Amino acid sequence: MNNSGEGYAMFAPQGSNFHGPSAPPASMFDSVPGYEGMAVGGGSGYLPPPVPAYPPPAPEPAPTQPEWNIPSISEDTAREAFRLYASSHCCYRKAPAVDGVITSMDAFNTYRYRLETFTESRSTEWDHEAYTGQPVDAYTQPAPGPWDIQVPAPAPFQDHTQDKQVPYTSSVKDCHTCMGSGRTPCKECAGAGNKVCWVCNGSGIRGGDDQCSHCNGRGRENCSHCDGHGSNDCETCKGKRQLLVYIKLKVKWTNNIDDFVVEQSSGLKVENLSKVTGKELFKDTQYMVYPVMGFPDPAVSQAAERLVRDHQAKYSSSARILQQRQTIELIPITKVTYKWSGSIHTYFVYGNEFQVNADDYPATCCCTIM
């Protein structure tokens, strides 16, 4: 084994583990008027929107729809939907869907009321990035308030987020992670620049008394993560030594949706209806909608009044309501009774997509996947 001084020099120094601060110190953040409430390492939470300068437009009742009903599906449609359903299941024999005789079809059409409230919420927090010569504008002018910053809204009724630097809050500070040096000790080798040779496990020999050819008998090899330097560019400042520190505005647009489905006695579970659409009978979009009135099923009108009231109370305190939309769909549900192999069975066809639910399909087999 090679016992020269060169070999010993490659061993890790004592105390070489380096742990930089986990969060920026409070001294990194300036006191910005209007933003004093932000905690170090945290944000402000969602900020209540200002009171509108002008009263919002009053909601208006939508015109009454003349037709609320649609006819039931045909027997041919029900049979074809059942056949496609059976074909989509590898363990289902097709005989019941092909040879079964339909004895009755009962319509259980139901209504789904949906209220969507499109909101915008804002919060602020301190943020930083590597300083590479960006403009620095802290204290050149008073920083605008969070709700005074113009941020174009996306298309309505779609979730979206956007971050924006608050003007006149940026300053340059030494990086807190590397103390302004631009480099931090390598985590893989603890700053030594070398690691135990994986071939000889640090012994310097292999195969009896033969010198390890991988490390030339030294027992250690250069660290590939830092190329033997013992340090890497600081991940926080990207080796630039300084950070641009500023207040970040976080804008979040959310489409808040609540549904109400009128109960029906068909036996089909309501959760099945969440994946299908119905015939749109009614649609109303306003800044604030007026609850549906005069609907043939009073349960829909009652649900509309309750949800409109709940959305106003729930979202107006922490977000700005931009728009609301209410719709009523008639979801077709047909309970089909059929006879096959001397027994009576049922299945459901529902939605514009003619989805099928047949929990008691009478001809199944076990498939073995090799």
TrEMBL record:
Gene Ontology MF terms in the entry: heat shock protein binding; unfolded protein binding
InterPro entries with a match to the protein in the record: HSP_DnaJ_Cys-rich_dom, SSUH2_homolog
Taxonomy, superkingdom: Eukaryota
Protein name: Protein SSUH2 homolog
